[in-house]
Amino acid sequence: MKISFLIAAHNEEKIISKTLSNLLALPYGDYEVIIGLDGCTDGTEKIIRDFMRKTSTIKYYELELRSGKPAVLDAI
Predict the structure, then answer these.
(1) Global confidence as pTM
(2) Which of 16, 20, 35, 47 might form a disulfide with 60, Cβ 3.0–4.6 angstroms?
């Protein structure tokens, strides 16, 4: 069974690296990390793209306008 971790993120450049590192260290065999970017204006997207170069476990979607966590989770 595949496990999906859904993350709604808005300007999380200070903590997203630690969050993703912790998720990638989990002892699960089949999982994915899906991130919804909620109108980010900082370096969050770049950090996520850097992680994506290392693993295919991470995917992200981008909302242009800040819409809030429920809208982000609905979109992903």
Answers:
(1) 0.84
(2) 35
